[in-house]
Amino acid sequence: MDVTFREDESYYLDLTPCRQGEKEDEVIDTVPLPVIGTVPLTFISPTSTADIPHTPSTMPSTMPSTTDIPHTSPSHHPSLIAPLPHVYHRRKPGTQPTIAPLLPMLSSDSDPDADLHVPIARLHGKARCTEHPISNHVAYDRLSKPHQSFIASLSEISIPKTWQEALCIPVWAQAMKEEMSALEKNHTCDVTSLPPGKKPIGSRWVFSVKQNQDGKVERYKSRLVARGYTQTQGVDYQETFAPVAKMDSIRVIISCAAILDWELHQLDIKNAFLHGDLEEEVYMSFPPGFVKKGQERFVCRLWKSLYGLKQSPRAWFGRFHKAMIKFGYKQGHSDHTLFVKRNEGKIVVLIVYVDDIVITRNDTNEISKLKGLLSAEFEVKDLGKLRYFLGIEVTRSDKGIFISQRKYVLDLLTETGMLGCAPANTPMEENHKIDQDSNGDRTDAPSYQRLVGKLLYLSHTRPDITYAVGILSRYMHAPRVRHQEDAYRVLRYLKKSPGRGLMFSKNKHLRIEVFTDADWAECHDDRKSTTGYCTFIGGNLVTWRSKKQSVVARSSAEAEYRSMSQGLCEGLWLSILLQDLGLKEEAPISLYCDNKAAIGIAHNPVQHDRTKHVEVDCHFIKDHLDKGSLVTPFVHSRDQLADVFTKSLGSDAFTDDIHKLRMIDIYHPT
Fold first, then answer.
1. Largest CA distance in the chain
2. pTM above 0.90, yes or no
3. Which of 76-80, 181-185, 344-348, 662-666 has the highest mean pLDDT?
4. Mean per-residue pLDDT for 167-183?
5. Which sign, positive or negative, has the C-alpha torsion 138, 139, 142, 148?
6. CB neighbour list of residue 123: distance below 8 Å, 6 or more residues apart
7. Higher-confidence residue: 476 or 44?
8. What are the helix and strand counts (H, E) for the chain?
9. Is the dihedral of CA 362, 365, 369, 371 positive or negative?
10. What is the fold of 507-593+595-634?
11. Which of 285, 320, 411, 568 has its CA 20 to 30 A from that of 339?
């Protein structure tokens, strides 16, 4: 097992800002220092461009050589990056600084600002508090030794930001060579002259790391990515749509795996997009770092899809879909990236997110056979048991499966300069209302949008920030300083428990339960209401949502009724997904609501004058009530689990609600 829960400890931890016996220092200011501008990186290359001898300007017949990559000793690498300006902060006289470690696995504290690139942080002209070390909020003593190694590996990985930097590091330079070799092997492109009237698209290098089940680096990935945003529709691309796995579907599969004790296997398809065939005529400039003197006027004619092209996802998924159908699998009705095969009462389930694959269910022989078929069709790497998927850490114990984005949170805090900030108890102050603030000072829109986008992705495993992030996302087009400060409040809350996530327990049933709520006329800008709902399968939280309603509700009952309708849609989709997984519903869907008027309208829609404008919703819910596929029990407001998705609660109520949602933190110090 990856983690052990001790019987003499509370299952839900009491989270406090400081360790027992420590005195919390006075907070000077929690607004992070901004970056005045991008700090230029100075690179020292053993072979400059000027040193390359001129070659005759003749057309090459093959892709450029992958052997002419400059190599330097790793010892030269630290000196390549120019140092950032110092960030100063105030300390109390006579006290020793306590600085949060950049790598949380280290036992001693280190300076988080050393060699730190902070693209999101903004300047407010005030000092940042660094007297709240992250070590107060993250610990790893509960984890097994193998999983500690896995977590340490995730925390220590450093990824280059430019191709020049990558070429100076041997492992990344080798990864770039392998990518170029894969392009040649797959006959992705040919080198040719640019025809008249054609315009080549550019390209760039993107770097990432794959880990194996022990947490060790499996592969350093260098991807050559085309600048597809320069393509023209109707000229070098046509259709672009391709499905990707819903995160909701992935959570449902993990929940069912925890309840029914399924094994979860993970595969990775190497160079997935290179397998798709292009129908359009597309030209691309030479890959950066591989242009030789005399070859500047030549381009690459693409025959197969490449990462970054508009049509690449569609071309790749079309190829993968054909392969799965050939293997005898059927596409799911609830999620088109889900493939299922039934054989003599046994089932195999596969779900794919671009090139990352999860396989589960109870037919071990068919799973092994499927791995062989995929390996014969594509270049596949078997990553073993599911541990790390799309930035989500998966931990298994005898009590169930725990998922979190611990590393993602720590990286985000580091990137924004908030690793040493004072933690907050809630993501938003109690009863705090946010509006357009039309007269407020504007803030940097790109940095705000990037920060909120990262928080939106984090909400896939952190339902506790869903409401706050949903409110902040309403003002992406014209953010103000006030909105930026509210976004930093969410970061301060994340600082308190970076490792908090969802626990999928081994319960004894698969009942679908939906809790719906609404905050009537909550938005001060247009007085539209906010819908909130959360759904459970087998007592485990699998989906949730917080969204502003599209029309103005005339009463609280109407707002609640619209929420019930949306919650029912989610419950019905979960029912279809369970059928795709070969599971049967054990009971009607339970739709919990704390508004008796809305429940009354559902059962007896007789108030025609007051409800005719929501008649479609009325008939929709009433129809399922008559079929017996739905029940609508009343739930008291104090037991309404969807409250956290419709309003900002106080610390006690908020903590109680997220505990009921089965959110825990296995990394928090005891």
1. 87
2. no
3. 662-666
4. 90
5. positive
6. 33, 34, 35, 36
7. 476
8. 15, 21
9. positive
10. Nucleotidyltransferase; domain 5 (3.30.420)
11. 568
Candidate from 367-371, 398-402, 557-561 with smallest mean pLDDT: 557-561
Helix (H) or strand (E) holding 504: strand 500-505
Q: Return the higher-pLDDT residue of 143 and 263.
A: 263
Q: Give the number of other Cβ atoms within 10 Å of residue 332's Cβ.
A: 20
> Is the pLDDT score of 428 beyond 70?
yes
User: What is the secondary structure of 396-424 as a DSSP string?
Assistant: EETTEEEEE-HHHHHHHHHHTT-TTSPP-
Predicted confidence at residue 210, as pLDDT, reads 74
Q: Is there a contact between 553 and 534 (Cβ–Cβ < 8 Å)?
A: no
Residue 152 has what pLDDT? 65
Dihedral sign, Cα of residue 431, residue 435, residue 438, residue 442: positive
Residue 369 to residue 540: CA distance in whole angstroms: 31
More confident residue, 269 or 133: 269
Contacts of 74 (CB under 8 A, 6+ apart): 169, 170
- Is residue 175 within 8 Å of 209, Cβ to Cβ? no
Residue 21 one-letter amino acid: G
**Over residues 206-214, mean pLDDT:** 73
pLDDT of residue 123: 43
Long-range contacts of 319-327 (CB under 8 A, 24+ apart): 319/275, 319/276, 319/277, 320/269, 320/272, 320/275, 320/352, 323/373, 323/374, 323/377, 323/378, 324/350, 327/370, 327/373
CA 578 to mean position of chain CA atoms: 24
Please, which residues have CB within 8 angstroms of residue 607's CB and are 6 or more apart in sequence? Answer: 601
Residues 593/636, Cβ–Cβ less than 8 Å: no
Q: 617: pLDDT confidence band, cut at 50, 70 and 90?
A: low
Helices (H), 66-206: 145-156, 163-167, 170-185
Say how many C-beta atoms besides its own lie within 10 A of residue 4's C-beta: 12
Average pLDDT over residues 442-467: 95
| CA pair distance 248, 599, nearest whole angstrom | 27
Residue 101: pLDDT over 70: no
State the Cα–Cα distance between residues 177 and 220, nearest whole angstrom: 11
Query: Residue with structure tokens 């404008």?
Result: 613
For 52, which DSSP code?
S
Helix H or strand E segment including 531: strand 530-537
Distance between CA 291 and CA 113 in Å, rounded? 36
Give the strand pairing for 263-269 and 500-505. Answer: unpaired
Q: How confident is the model at residue 608 (pLDDT cuts 50, 70, 90)?
A: low
Q: Is 74 exposed, middle or buried (0-12, 13-18, 19+ CB in 10 A)?
A: exposed
Choose the weakest-confidence range: 5-19, 393-407, 595-609. Answer: 5-19
Pairwise CA distance, residues 153 & 139, whole Å: 15
3-class DSSP assignment, residue 42: coil
| CA 116 distance to own-chain centroid | 23
**Can you give the residue ranges of every domain in the chain?**
145-390, 405-500, 507-593+595-634
Taking the CA atoms of residue 651, residue 652, residue 655 and residue 660 in that order, the dihedral angle to the nearest 10 degrees is: -150
- First-to-final CA distance of the chain: 20
- CA-to-CA distance for 278 and 187, rounded, in angstroms? 12
Identify whether the C-beta of residue 468 lies closer than 8 Å to the C-beta of residue 647: no
C-alpha to C-alpha distance for 106 and 100, rounded to whole angstroms: 10
Segment (H or E) for 312: helix 312-326
